């Protein structure tokens, strides 16, 4: 089973949209950070501070990347990248499990 | 901020009740395990395999322990213990953030 080893996990959850989006923060020895999160069905808009790589481990959702007019569909597994200081939209169809990597540039 | 250090975190979420209850598994160097979880509002029954100590970090919920007829109310923070091989019920009123410790005996 896939895992992150020798990491620090913050005990308190990150909670957004009345708990329909929640995540846990994982800190790595090299100073980098990821969150492990759950998206429940719904429509959301998120903003980034730094570049984010979103890896969907399971779920069905549509993604509208910044500057795009065309929705990307992810079914099962997939990945997309959002630049820093940008907004993106999600239409989540089924409970989705993600890993978000924050990339300081 | 409270954290677990030098741990292993499984990347895949544990998902129950259509995603209304989700958690992440954290493994410690001594072989013990905890989960960090989120409870969305709803009514749930859970079963234990081993003894569980449930620490509510935030949330409002009622707990019915096995063999009890009286609900316990937790508002904000609280803790309860469930023996192995038992069932307990939760009435979750607001999004709740918990740490569950699994105690092998």
Automatic annotation (TrEMBL), chains A, B:
This protein's name: Pyrimidine/purine nucleoside phosphorylase
EC number per UniProt: 2.4.2.1, 2.4.2.2
Job of this protein: Catalyzes the phosphorolysis of diverse nucleosides, yielding D-ribose 1-phosphate and the respective free bases. Can use uridine, adenosine, guanosine, cytidine, thymidine, inosine and xanthosine as substrates. Also catalyzes the reverse reactions.
Catalysed transformations (reactions): adenosine + phosphate = alpha-D-ribose 1-phosphate + adenine; xanthosine + phosphate = alpha-D-ribose 1-phosphate + xanthine; a purine D-ribonucleoside + phosphate = a purine nucleobase + alpha-D-ribose 1-phosphate; inosine + phosphate = alpha-D-ribose 1-phosphate + hypoxanthine
Family: Belongs to the nucleoside phosphorylase PpnP family.
HAMAP family xrefs: Nucleos_phosphorylase_PpnP
Any one GO MF annotation of this record: pyrimidine-nucleoside phosphorylase activity
This protein's UniProt keywords: Glycosyltransferase, Transferase
Enzyme class: transferase
